[in-house]
Fold this protein.
Amino acid sequence: MQASAIWQFSLDSLHALAWGGPLLIALVVCARFVPLRTLVISTTVVTFALVMLGAYVRLTNAGLGCPDWPGCYGKLSPGLAAEQIEAAEAEAPAGPVSLPKAWKEMLHRYLASLVGVMILAIAYQALRGRRRDDYSEPRASVGLPLALVLLVVLQGLFGKWTVTLLLKPVIVTLHLLGGMALFAMLAWLSARMLELSAGPPSVLRGIRPWASFALVALGFQIALGGWVSTNYAALACTDFPVCHGRWVPSMDFDQGFHFLRELGMTAGGEPLSNEALNAIHWAHRVGALVTLMVVGFAGLKSLRVRDLHGYGMALLALLLLQIALGVTNVLGSLPLPVAVAHNGVAALLLATLVMLNFALNSPAIFRR
Amino acid sequence: MSVSVQSPALSSRLQQFLQLTKPRVISLIVFTAVIGMFLAEPAERLLTAGFWWAAIFATLGIALVAGSAAAVNCLVEQKIDAVMARTRARPLPMGTISSPETLLFAGVVGGVGLTILHVLVNPLTMWLTLATFVGYAVIYTLLLKPLTPQNIVIGGASGAMPPVLGWAAVTGGVSSDALLLFLIIFAWTPPHFWALALYRKNEYAKAGIPMLPVTHGDRFTRLHVLLYTVILVAATMLPFATRMSGMIYLISAVALGSLFLIYAVRICVDYSDALARQTFRYSILYLSLLFAALLVDHYARF
């Protein structure tokens, strides 16, 4: 059954046409009639929305709203599969399938396919631009757009395996990280299109290592956050800053950070213990402290450079907001809007850091 | 004015719309599709009414969809057409027909064609024809042509579909023999087009289309005309190798292919624009005669 779960593809031919036709039109419009700069920036914005929508799907437990991929019971929309969905719901009223959940999941898939097409169009324009001798507007390199195409295909596969392999935490976390990486790469490309740059090289030299270090720290922290969410460990501790009244709760790191296992199970198939969930939760808190210091330091250093003042302000503001949202999640038993916002602000922090790093690598002397 | 007499304005407008459908290209498409139909069936099937109805409606449907695709092509390329001497007098660059009119015309004609194929022939033929339409009007014209010098190699897949469509129309399926016909036209397209592109290089460069002679130069293109002709001649041996066709076909294919190879070698070593023009004309004759040979061989084997 595992092999068929990996390779399955469910979509009736007419439904595939109704989905693929508009996508093809979108591809042609984006590839031929939208200026590259507009296209890159709008793709970045849509991808941000997609990442947040993905978090919303995860947090409303709608990931299995349609048990097959890419169609919903082989159909284009949950409305067309209402009969099967209602039957599944009648069989298991508390189960993963219901009409609202199916709609959330399918909206995520529609938007994701649009992002895929927009990225294809970016690659198309980049490849075409290579042949033109027009240097009047910024040109995308070919490497990054092609890497985006590869990553978005991989994301599609992870999205599918998220469903067909029944929410294995490691797959779902990789799906989140792939989405964040896609967004970060698009932010980099947007920075190139906007021709971001910063002060004279001599001033920037001191900040550059901190900015790259902050990016690495944030990446790790996002991965830890994804691991919390996909293991449903957000409420393992309900007090703050201590956990179960102790600074260091009893924890089981071996089980908590064992990657290849089913959701809520140990590798051996036993239910996952509270100690394992504590370990997952606590690691994200420690990570938050480290990230606060490293990213905060990069933000403070940026504040002192005139050209980077905006980046510094944005980083510090987002950082404080993110900590506040994280604490609210714990104390308020994971309110849905706050939990989704915690994901969104993480993405914004990432984009800001990526753009800061881009600016630091394009000193002002090269400005046209 | 009586109803039976058309006003001159109306008849010239009909002519303009007819010109949008590129009748000469359609006739070649229909020709290869019809040959696909005849090659698909043994002689005794020709006596049945079912074959003829399918053949007539499929021919009509394929011609309509092909005309619609040509109109979309004219619509998309009106700016390019306005730059190139050969195409400057087409209705859209001249302004005698507007873009919305063209789009409506293409939609109606294509829709009628697809409906005929679906209702009166069979759904498979309709889907394959629709895929060919999308492949030509959208993927080739809008995306590949301005992107890559491999445009006509990949886009050639749409041009190679008509015999397969004909085959599917009368048999309701696609067999390996039909795919051989596809392969032959697919391999024929690059030397055919590049011969044209060689002597029209400047026009293509002016229109900004990355044809192979524009992007990679003459020498490279001439070599590729030769290499693809070798592939083509090898592909034309396959119908004999698979026993689909017999000696009549083999002899014709070898004779026609040898002449094509002579042209290709001369293009490679001793190029002139006049020679490229001759090669282009010969390539059309070559394909017509090759398919005629397939047909004769199919019904008169020895």
Observations:
- The first helix of chain A runs from residue 2 to 7.
- Residues 1-195 of chain A form one domain.
